[in-house]
Amino acid sequence: MAARYCITTPIYYVNALPHIGTALTTLAADVTARYQSMQGREVFFLTGTDENGTKVKEAALAAGKPPQEFVDSIAGRFSDIWHGMDIQYDDFIRTTEPRHVHAVQEFFKLLQEKGHIYKGLYEGWYDVSSETFYREADLVDGKSPDGNEVRWVQEENYFFRMSGFAEPLLRHIQAHPKFIIPESRKNEVVAFINQGLRDICVSRHNPGWGIPVPGDETQVVYVWFDALINYVAAAGWPAAGWQDRWPADVQWMGKDILTRFHATLWPAMLMGAGLPLPTSLVGHAWMLMGGEKISKSKGNVVAPLDLAAELAERSGCDPKIAVDAVRYYMAATLPFDTDSTFTPDDFDRRYNSDLANDLGNALNRSLAMSHKFTGGKIPGGAVEPDAATAISAAIAAAEKAMTEFRIDHAAEAAWSLVRFLNKYIDTRAPWALAKNQDPSLPAVIRSMLACLRATEGLVHPILPNTSAAIATQLGLEPISLWSQIGKEGSLTEGTKLSEPRPIFPRLELHKPVVSKAERKETKSEKSMATPETLKPAQSTHSAEIHSEIGIDDFAKVQLKVGRVLEAEAIEGSDKLLRLQVMIGPEKRQIVAGIRNNYQPIDLIGRQVIVLTNLKAVKLRGVESQGMLLAATDAEGGAILLQPDQEAPEGTQVR
RNA sequence: CGCGGGGUGGAGCAGUCUGGUAGCUCGUCGGGCUCAUAACCCGGAGGUCAAAGGUUCGAAUCCUUUCCCCGCACCCA
Question: Residue A569 pLDDT more than 80?
Fold first, then answer.
């Protein structure tokens, strides 16, 4: 019976579809899964979607669909995208499935029985306008720190005794150096726990969507508590046999959800329930777009399948190979400790230099020479020593990388072999050997093919389609086991080689070199972001939610023309400006988050469109009696709307 | 003083824990080869390792201080 190896990704929230930033985690998990599978282990690779949470209900409502139907369609699109990227997961769990709901409720009950969950009175001074609770000590003259009225409220909720787990957690982290990876994240987690862990409220008032607390229908389980349990729910827990799929050997995730959730709350929950902890938690860094975090609101989302389709079209490569190219880029530049940046130019460059020039061309020239010099068949004999050394060094480096979860280093290891091959060919110059009828020619050709065969195996976890294409061109069955890589027996003497055909056609690069000074300039002109940066952002896969309203609904909105009289920055805030706006005879104070694009001086005297019948609210302690209408630029900044020509102040906008 | 990450040739990064000739990929310039997808190979130029001070025989690396960039949090009505 083969040793098992369990891998998880987080379950994705269904409010947006994956882009190359979020898909990174799933790709890393897939590469790990394929590698472990090659090692002969029985792999269980779990992913899924998080469908509870009140925002889902709201989004469904906005889309005019029943929540379940809405969620079904999004979950389906997730699995379509994963399939398109050749992600081979073994199970896809959805938090609306009965097996998950059941596990969550059982887990909750178990923790209750063990005394780790208690019902507590959540009480305190509540500031209604800012929806925040304050302690007695926080109040200033009987009001909130912002100066709002507060009232005493009591709410019953369930609490998880996380405070008791700080010591056990620290001990576990100490005793298991590979529990939290990378090191920098581990330090962060330790620092976080040392600050002290507080009991955490694990239920909310039931909004009609979510998992009810067992025995108390008025409450639903807190979404994070709920979500984390998916890992054991998918293993079948609490039914017998869950040990086959839990604990996970590795749980991949982005660094943002490591510290607070996976490295503290989650292990504390498991300890409380008496369940084993995962072996490793890996929190990779982010892939940024043009130096910023990829996010839907900034409009800089790049969908992996769009990127692949576009590449296939531009380069003429096979669509499956284009998917590999995207996988390669993501794997080879996988941000581990520190964030990296995606740019379309960088993607193109890596495609050309690494895939087309290095790997593709090495395969192509090697096959061409085999046909020309040794009759198109794999010669027998031994691989030359330096080639054999290079092969085993690459295998060792790739193995080390994989055990450290450094997917990027694993790619680098494979490429070190490809680079060796290109050097080797030039050094040994088979064309010269052929001319001189040198007897070492067959051994050199065999050595070249051996490098390619080993490369095929090494890149298999990252580039499954490319790997298969290499095997096909070599006329061999694909390598399926890691232990076969580099073995003489994997290169059968006399095998007929296919005609060489470029796997990765080169891309024609138009691209101008952008100097640092030029780039800076572009950046300072906010709305002038470079066109090529924006282009791929127009994702055809984005999960925009459309809903229709009637004219009556619109009539509820009162918009008027106003003129800015005064403007000043609000201290302690990056974005907020305090504006005094004349709307007809009336003067209003409005707070607007537009400072990234507008200085106070730019605004004075300017006409703006104001939403006037919006409930007043305090922002950073300053009351705002309305809202300015603005569009959003590529970087999430505001672009103010203004009448096409001067309009009388107070004019109704329709 | 909210928390955290980072500043290394034109670009992207490694090296920092465990001080000892500054390394890799891309770009650039020159040369070579002709098997190959104008691909490949070799060589050169280009760095006061953000700044200052300190420890040391010796600092990118250790200590102190400062400056700058970026996330998160707050906040975008």
Answer: no
Q: Which helix (H) or strand (E) holds A323?
A: helix A319-332
Longest dimension (CA), chain A: 99
Q: Distance between CA atoms of A406 and A85, rounded to whole angstroms?
A: 20
State the Cα–Cα distance between residues A468 and A74, nearest whole angstrom. 31
- Per-residue pLDDT, A186: 83
A577 versus A180: which is more confidently predicted? A180
Nearest to A48, CA basis, from A92, A96, A8: A92
Q: Which nucleotide is nearest to A516 (CA to C1')?
A: B10
A398 token code pair: 């790739």
Instruction: Report the residue count for chain A.
Output: 654
- As a whole number, the mean pLDDT across chain A is 83
CA of residue A540 to C1' of nucleotide B70, angstroms: 29
Phi, psi of A192 (to 5 degrees): -65, -45
Q: What is the distance between the alpha carbons of residues A250 and A405, in angstroms, rounded to a whole number?
A: 9
Neighbours of A451 (CB within 10 A): 27
Q: Tell me the CA–C1' distance in angstroms for A463 and B37.
A: 19
Q: Which residues contact A91 (CB under 8 A, 6 or more apart)?
A: A44, A45, A46, A47, A48, A234
Closest nucleotide over all strands to A501 (CA to C1'): B37
CA of A507 to C1' of B37 (A): 10
Span A206-227, average pLDDT: 88
User: Residue A290: what pLDDT?
Assistant: 54
- The phi and psi torsions of A389 (rounded to 5 degrees) equal -65, -45
| pTM (two decimals) | 0.80
pLDDT tens per residue, range A411-422: 999 999 999 999
State the nucleotide closest to A363 in CA–C1' terms: B36
Distance in angstroms (rounded) separating the CA atoms of residues A532 and A529: 9
Q: What are phi and psi of A132, to 5 degrees?
A: -130, 145
Question: Contact A485/A467 with Cβ under 8 angstroms?
Answer: no
Cβ–Cβ < 8 Å for A653, A637: no
Distance in Å from B4's C1' to A382's CA comes to 54
The SS3 assignment for A591 reads strand
DSSP state of A463: -
- How many angstroms separate the CA atoms of A303 and A326, rounded? 10
| pLDDT reported for residue A644 | 82
Q: Decide if A626 contacts A581 (C-beta within 8 A).
A: yes
Angstrom distance, A507 CA to B44 C1': 29
A294 has a pLDDT exceeding 60: no
Q: What is the pLDDT of residue A466?
A: 98
How many Cα atoms sit within 13 Å of A390 on the Cβ side? Answer: 24
Decide if A280 contacts A178 (C-beta within 8 A): yes
d(CA A422, CA A358): 8
Alpha carbon A408 to its chain centroid, in Å, reads 16
Show which positions of strand B are touched by protein (CB under 7 A).
3-6, 10-14, 17, 25-27, 32-42, 70-77
Cis preceding-peptide flag for A238 (omega within 30 of 0):
yes
Q: Is the dihedral of CA A459, A464, A465, A467 positive or negative?
A: positive
Q: Would you state the structure tokens that stand for residue A533, as one six-digit string?
A: 């940066």
Q: Which nucleotide's C1' sits nearest to the alpha carbon of A423? A: B41
The residues with which A603 forms a beta bridge, in sequence order, are none
Alpha-carbon gap, residue A242 to A233, rounded angstroms: 9
